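Re-run requested by the PI after the first attempt was lost when the workstation crashed. Everything re-entered from the original request form. Ligand of interest: uridine 5'-triphosphate.
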Amino acid sequence: MTFEEAKAKLEEFGQLHVLKYYDELSEAEKADLIAQIADTDFAVVDNCKNLGKSQGRGEFAPLAAMQVSEIESRKEELFSIGAKALKEGKIAACLLAGGMGTRLGSDNPKGMYDIGLTKNVYIFQRIIENLLDTVKQADGTYLRLFIMTSEKNNDATVSFLKEHNFFGYPEDKVTFFKQEMAPASDYDGKVYMESKSRISTSPNGNAGWYASMLRAGLRDIILKEGIEWIDIFSVDNVLQRIADPCFVGATLGAGVSCGAKVVRKNAPDEKVGVMCLEDGKPSIVEYYELSQEMMDAKDANGDPAYNYGVILNYLFNEKDLYEISKKSLPLHVVEKKIPYIDENAQLIKPESPNGCKFEQLVLDMIHELPSCLPYEVVREYEFAPIKNKEGVDSVDTARELCKKCGIEL
Ligand code: UTP
């Protein structure tokens, strides 16, 4: 792209301020900025006008979960189906570690955070330890572990894991890939600049993982290794079980496109997304979309009908994902803290949200699939998310939960 073409593109989208410092830049910086302008989809920032507005949803209906009582009573059967698939190498895991972790507020990737008290216990370490439990249950069969990073945290993530010898996971079983980025803007849709020569960008949400895997050419590995299912999970739940045999067995045995780990809600109005049907297809209703009527609805046993919250741990059938991958997912607008340079070109790291990021969400991915099994896990054993520095879902709450599970910190 030439300078003139870049200028015309910016003009078309009302973003000419991006060139404010162009004349001051070195030749290399000029080339980088022009390349970034060429790569950036400025049309997405138009979505900022939808901030806080409902996206318009379909008709919701309950979707029954496989409950702990059933899982317990069918444990042997589920375990044997799952362990067989694991030993046959049909299952892979994918760690979603591309997020910015802005609420935690650490400059490093979230997985590098040390939650230890008497020794180092890094979040990545906890995750690998949990994955190694699955390996043990599969008689030593290592799963392929994909790790999604973003251009912002890839180098730090890769070098940290290498430095720590992948916490005992074989390096040749680990494959990194980077997710796509989207520009970040102020509330009027003007993109922020993070330096004189760089537009502020942020990772495009946790649902872009499969498209990013395809773009990175990783389907070759999937086909070559005979991987049929991929368990995706978030970086910040330090207690989660990953592709554990019973979950795998329940999902495969149910003949669905996807299994979703869920926890029983603490209260009808708890702030979690709830697994449900939307227009007859699996979906997730956000807590603020739950009407009083839905909160009061009961199933055949008299239990709340919308009672199972998602914890960002899903087992997807890879062929079904490939089928739906031709459709592009909508971008949602989220309010976040976005570092930017001010009128004096000083970098500002805001204390409170100052603009919009644009993200693809997993719920839209689930909704494209024909079927999904919500699979209940016990919150105290499998759900210790670290989102915030203090208070709810923080390092302290996660430490407490780890301690109760006998994990030394
Ligand atoms: P969160 O929604 O908690 O986002 O991510 P975040 O970016 O990590 O944290 P905040 O909101 O800025 O504080 C849930 C999971 O999805 C991953 C995160 O790394 C985490 O594992 N994620 C999120 C991505 O991989 N890419 C993204 O673009 C967003």
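Saved to the shared folder this time. Residues 96-103, 110, 148, 179, 203-206, 234-236, 312, 359, 387 surround uridine 5'-triphosphate (CB under 6 Å).
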